[in-house]
Each structure stands twice: as C-alpha cells, then as structure tokens.
Amino acid sequence: MARKTGSHSEITGPRVREAALTLFARHGFAAVSMRQIAREVGVQAGALYLYTKDKQSLLFDLMRTHMDELLAAWADEPKGQNALEALEAFSRFHIRFHLERPDAVFIAYMELRNLTDENFAAIEALRRQYEGELESILRAGQEAGELDISDIRLSSMAIIAMLTGVNTWYREGGRLSREAVADRYWDMVRGAVGA
Amino acid sequence: MARKTGSHSEITGPRVREAALTLFARHGFAAVSMRQIAREVGVQAGALYLYTKDKQSLLFDLMRTHMDELLAAWADEPKGQNALEALEAFSRFHIRFHLERPDAVFIAYMELRNLTDENFAAIEALRRQYEGELESILRAGQEAGELDISDIRLSSMAIIAMLTGVNTWYREGGRLSREAVADRYWDMVRGAVGA
DNA sequence: TTGGTAACTGAACAATCGTTCATATCCAAG
DNA sequence: CTTGGATATGAACGATTGTTCAGTTACCAA
Q1: Is the CB of B19 under 7 A from strand C?
Q2: CA A38, A10, A123: angle at the middle one, nearest 5?
C-alpha cells in the first residue's frame, strides 16, 4: 500500500511538525522516536524523511520558526510613546505570545542542549536579538530618567525570566484570566525597574 | 578481573551520582546511557546496579537529594526580624544556594517529565513546600502592611522564576560577583512587592 | 488509455539501549 | 589457611534507535 487518496504532501508536512512539537514538549527530544512521531501522524517512519532531512533538522526547524515568529510578532507590536509604555507593551506582549504557544516555548527553552553547535549558535543569536529589544527599552528609559536601573543586562534577564515563568504555572480556565495575570505582572515589572 | 585493590563501595557510590549529575545536566537524562556514566566512573555498566536499582532511581535520588538539601538549608537560614528582612534573606539565600549547584538545579527543573508519576508527585510536593515558604513570608508581609501584593501565589511564582533565572546567565569570573548580583536582584524583588 | 511522478510502505541495516547474571577477584574475619 | 561476603567484569538478552531504499500504490496530465 502507499498513498490512499488525493495529494497529501501539503497536509502531511505540517502534521509532522505538529506531532513533533507536541511529543518533544511532552517527553523531550531525546525520548521521542521517529516511529512515535510517525504513528501520531498515521504514517510509517520512513515517510517522515520526505519532510525532514533528519531528526535534528526537525528540532531545529521548530525552534527557528518559533524564534522567527517571536521577533516578527514583536516587530509588529505597537510600542507606545515612551520607554515606560514600551516596557508595558513588551511585558504584556511577552506573556500573551508565550501563553499562546506553550509547547514551542517549552522546547525553545529545554532542548537547546540537543542542538548541534551550529544550530545552537543560530538559535542563540535570535534569542540575543530578542533580549536586545528589551535592553533597548530599558536603556532608553534610563537615559530619559523614566526608569531606575542599576544594570541593564541584568534587569533584562530578570524581567524575561519572570515573565516567561508564567508558562510554568498558568493553566487555562484557572483562577485568573490572561489579562488579569498580565496586569499583575506589569505591576511587578514596573516596581522592579523603580517606576 | 574484578576489584583491583581495597574497598571501593564508599568511593564508587558517590562517584556514580556525581557522574550522573554532570552528564544528565549536560546532555539530558534520556540522552545519557548507563554505559556513558560507567565510563565516566571508570567501571563497567553492570557495576552501576550495585549502587542504584535502575536508571530512573538514579535520577530520582539526585532530585530528591537536591530538594531535601534545599529545604534543610533554608530551614537553617536566619530569617531576620520582620517580613521584609525575611524576604531579603530568602532572595539572597535562593540565589546563593542555586548558584552553588547549577547542575542539580538544571536537572531539578528540566527532568521532571522523565520521572514516573509516583516520583514526580514526590518531587512536586517538595517543590510546593519550598514555594510555600516564600508564600508565608509574602502573606506575613501583606498582613503587617510591609508589602503591597495583589496575589500572593502569583508574586511567589514570579519572584522564584526571576531569582532562579540567574542560573541561566551567570558565569563564574564574569562582570559581577555573586554578592553584586544578589544586591541588584534584591532591589528588584523589593520593588516588585512595592517596598 | 497510458505514462510519469509524488507519496508512501515495509523490510532491512548496524548501533545502541537498560538490565541481568554467571563468574572472578579481593579483603577481612575466624 | 580457609571461608564468605563485597565488588566488579564481560558477555549476553531482547528491544529499540535513526536512517536508507527498493518496491508499490494512487493520482494527474497527456
């Protein structure tokens, strides 16, 4: 047996990435076999290689796509009139974007060590670029006297860690809505930068 | 051939755990084989089973030991005279303790999904206990009017995520000493709780 | 109706996995 | 000097791993 009905290439490709995303997030890259992914898609393991060069490329594609989308989405986001408004925009954007794709976020943070050196460098560069966006806001706010920050790099890392941490405990349908969570985190971020 | 010289049990046991700790942190639990651990220790794979029931128990032991040490160390820590001082003590303690054992921290956060359900529940309970320590401080501070917090659980998670984040970027011999880092993070924590 | 090709199967490859076990060696105690 | 337990080897187990590939099918265009 082979192809059952119709042209499947444009359907199977995305389904492979979806299955890999879910399974990698749930069990970890190293613990998931190509056969498990294939079973999830409803296909034999060999067919996966029509859509990815190898397992490593599958992981890298997921991570690079995630980072590209992150940077593109932030670029499209309205930044407000000053540094404080930009920081609020960043905080709310970060929480919203990350809560919308918990699996991709999980993978992007947990599977860095399973990338080859070359692929790791590429993802790391994108991450630094995103961190740079926040650093720019903090620097502008400091120069304008809007914020009180003793170390920009350090504050940037602290804020990102705090905001990303939402993903570890937030559950849909829980006690607080996403907006309520974002409100409270923005309060804390503002306090942390002395504004 | 078997044992070369002397009694090794009290030496090999810890060495197995050390090797597992390092390798699990570097490559991930699922990506490390028992043979790799054995090679690091300088022993054949079969000998590992004199010191651990199986691979899963090895992981669980590392994580439970880490959590036990964390809780014991915090219990021994001076807490100050009021909630604000206790929060400062907690912040500085958390950074110090975590920076001293980056491998164990990494494993405790990354390998939860590789635990059996039973083992996961045990580790999770210890983690909740630690989070409860911080929540108690925040609640006391709120009741005493020392702190301005809108949601204790949420603030607790935010603070812990922020503090633990230090481990992702701090490098020994870098721009800032541990004390300088702790000073700045304490400033941010204090701002985040409105004090 | 035919031919070509995209999509897929199913078997096969060598390598590696966690774990067990019979065997060997060493040390301390009787 | 003998014995027994602790410590380790090294081979073996079946299962599974990522990946390749020759063959098979289903569809579309001519």
Answers
A1: no
A2: 70
Q: Does B162 touch chain A (CB under 8 A)?
A: yes
- φ/ψ (deg, to 5) at A57: -65, -35
Window 75-104 of B: residues touching A by CB (8 A cutoff) are none
| Nearest protein residue to nucleotide D21, judged by CA and C1' positions | A46
Q: Where are the domains of chain A?
A: 1-52, 54-192
State the Cα torsion A48-A49-A53-A59 to the nearest 10°.
10
Nearest to A191 among B113, B151, B192 (CB): B192
Q: State how far residue A184 is from chain B, nearest Cα, in angstroms.
A: 7
- Give the best residue of B162, B176, B181 to mutate against chain A (max A CB count within 10 A): B162
- Domain A54-192 sits in CATH at 1.10.357.10
Decide which of 1.10.3720.10, 3.20.20.450, 1.10.10.60, 3.50.4.10 is the CATH code for A1-52: 1.10.10.60
CATH homologous superfamily of domain B55-192? Tetracycline Repressor, domain 2 (1.10.357.10)
The span from the CA of B107 to the CA of B22, in Å, is: 9
Which chain A residue has its CA at the smallest distance from B113's CA?
Answer: A27
- Could you list the pLDDT tens digit for every one of the 195 residues in chain B? 444 444 566 789 999 999 999 999 999 999 999 999 999 999 999 999 999 999 999 999 999 999 999 999 999 999 999 999 999 999 999 999 999 999 999 999 999 999 999 999 999 999 999 999 999 999 999 999 999 999 999 999 999 999 999 999 999 999 999 999 999 999 999 999 998
Euclidean distance between CA atoms B62 and B156, whole angstroms: 25
- Return the structure tokens found at A156: 């940037």
CB-based contact A91:A159 (threshold 8 Å)? yes
